[in-house]
């Protein structure tokens, strides 16, 4: 059995899964939230090998930092199961968000790799420092197994220069590594392969648009299994409207707000990353709450939904033109997999482009991959659940076995 522990550490959270990577079986899942919060944090852990209530543990916990969160995770395994002795991980796989132009493959973590991840932190200030803390804590807890970094940016390293280059002064861009890197690559890669499998066609002959709509959201044009264009940029702020992030905005708004409204650089950063998106527009960062508010007649919530789906439609059109032909449009992640209304509004009115959503099929709830377009639709519209953790576990195992 090749068990891999997968760690996804965010700025204030630690998500983990214990996975039997060859069979793709999840043995345990967990989430520790509000790390570093003065009022304390919260932990949830599930032993997926049992249906019994005793397999679930949840509690308020003291977690000043990621190292403490790691101890909470280890205690949860010891107290609730499954046993980490019986299911000893052969490796630990880590989600690392920014790998720059340096990392285009999953990489065994050495001291030099950690220095590189640290150097890339200015290009993902919300994500990389947290990823590193998670790595340090995990290495202390599991000193005898290899640790592997799987980068969000890696899948997008196949983008052509025309897609990743910003039209600014070349010297400034080169000196400061300002270019599009793209994120959610692990998900875009997994989902595009799963979509090809569902369609029963070799991925080499498919052109598709993958819409990863979670808290963060990004679109990706995938041609022959390779990313050729994606909507997130140098950082995970560009592109689609997100839970709290603005996505695309006229860059001139930034100096304008600095001069006119007393924002400094940090204030702008905070505004665009944490107080914008559907939260800023509609007062809810969670899509479920936004849809409910809109259905209760809240006009601000409805406008937020309109802006959110209008932006998606714009990207679908742009990527269709870049690809020249579209075989499939694929929705994934929390919003993409669950919010029928978002899917309907995003692709409504595209019949002229061969995209015909089957309203009934779209509204039906389902769990696995499924088709939500009509039989007559030239473009297959699919919902395909993502599984970043399984993809990280598989890639980790591949590196370790090589
Ligand atoms: N049934 C649902 N209907 C609408 N939105 C949903 C539903 N379930 C989850 N979501 C949304 O999915 C988003 C979270 O997606 P997820 O992929 O889990 O994000 P992340 O991994 O970035 O934290 C939230 O906005 C949440 O409201
Ligand atoms: C890169 C990124 O935005 O990740 P997340 O959606 O997990 O915030
Ligand atoms: Mg996610």
UniProtKB/TrEMBL annotation:
PANTHER family named in the record: ACETATE KINASE (PTHR21060), ACETATE KINASE-RELATED (PTHR21060:SF15)
EC number of the protein: 2.7.2.1
Coarse class of the protein's main subcellular location: cytoplasm
A molecular function (GO) term: ATP binding
Positions that bind Mg(2+): 8, 388
Cofactors, names only: Mg(2+); Mn(2+)
Keywords: ATP-binding, Cytoplasm, Kinase, Magnesium, Metal-binding, Nucleotide-binding, Transferase
Binding partners and assembly: Homodimer.
EC class (word): transferase
Binding sites annotated in the UniProt record for ATP: 15, 212-216, 286-288, 334-338
A Pfam family of this chain: Acetate_kinase
Pathway assignment: Metabolic intermediate biosynthesis; acetyl-CoA biosynthesis; acetyl-CoA from acetate: step 1/2
Biological function: Catalyzes the formation of acetyl phosphate from acetate and ATP. Can also catalyze the reverse reaction.
Organism field: Agromyces mariniharenae
UniProt superkingdom: Bacteria
One Gene Ontology term, aspect cellular component: cytoplasm
Catalysed reactions, semicolon-separated: acetate + ATP = acetyl phosphate + ADP
Protein name: Acetate kinase
Binding site for substrate: 95
Site (Transition state stabilizer): 184, 245
CDD domains noted in UniProt: ASKHA_NBD_AcK_PK
One biological process term in Gene Ontology: acetyl-CoA biosynthetic process
Residues forming the catalytic site: 152
InterPro entries in the cross-refs: Ac/propionate_kinase, Aliphatic_acid_kin_short-chain, Aliphatic_acid_kinase_CS, ATPase_NBD
């Amino acid at each position: 059995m090749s068990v891999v522990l997968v760690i996804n550490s965010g700025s204030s959270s630690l998500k983990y899964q214990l996975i039997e990577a060859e069979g793709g079986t999840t043995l345990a899942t967990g989430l520790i939230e509000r790390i570093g919060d003065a009022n304390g944090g919260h932990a949830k852990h599930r032993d997926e090998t049992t249906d019994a209530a005793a397999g679930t543990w949840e509690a308020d916990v003291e977690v000043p930092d990621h190292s403490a969160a790691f101890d909470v995770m280890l205690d949860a395994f010891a107290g609730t199961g499954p046993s980490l002795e019986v299911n000893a991980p052969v490796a630990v796989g880590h989600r690392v968000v920014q790998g720059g132009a340096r990392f285009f493959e999953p990489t065994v973590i050495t001291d030099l790799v950690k220095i590189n991840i640290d150097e890339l932190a200015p290009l993902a200030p919300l994500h990389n420092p947290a990823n590193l803390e998670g790595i340090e804590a995990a290495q202390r807890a599991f000193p005898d197994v290899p640790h592997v970094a799987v980068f969000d940016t890696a899948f997008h390293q196949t983008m052509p220069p025309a897609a990743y280059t910003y039209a600014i002064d070349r010297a400034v861009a080169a000196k400061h590594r300002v270019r599009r890197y793209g994120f959610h690559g692990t998900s875009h890669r997994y989902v595009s392969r799963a979509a090809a499998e569902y369609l029963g066609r070799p991925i080499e002959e498919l052109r598709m648009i993958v819409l990863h709509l979670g808290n963060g959201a990004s679109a990706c044009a995938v041609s022959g299994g390779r990313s050729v264009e994606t909507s997130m940029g140098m950082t995970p702020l560009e592109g689609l409207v997100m839970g709290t992030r603005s996505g695309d905005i006229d860059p001139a708004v930034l100096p304008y707000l600095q001069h006119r409204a007393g924002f400094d650089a940090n204030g702008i950063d905070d505004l665009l990353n944490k107080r914008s998106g559907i939260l800023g527009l509609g007062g809810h960062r969670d899509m479920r709450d936004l849809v409910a508010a809109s259905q209760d007649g809240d006009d601000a919530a409805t406008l937020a939904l309109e802006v959110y789906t209008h932006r998606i439609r714009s990207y679908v059109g742009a990527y269709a033109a870049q690809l020249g032909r579209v075989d499939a449009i694929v929705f994934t992640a929390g919003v993409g997999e669950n919010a029928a209304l978002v899917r309907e509004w995003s692709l409504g009115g595209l019949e002229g482009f061969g995209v015909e959503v089957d309203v009934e099929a779209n509204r039906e709830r389902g769990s696995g991959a499924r088709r939500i377009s009509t039989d007559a639709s030239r473009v297959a519209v699919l919902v395909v659940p993502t599984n970043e953790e399984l993809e990280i576990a598989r890639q980790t195992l591949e590196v370790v076995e090589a």
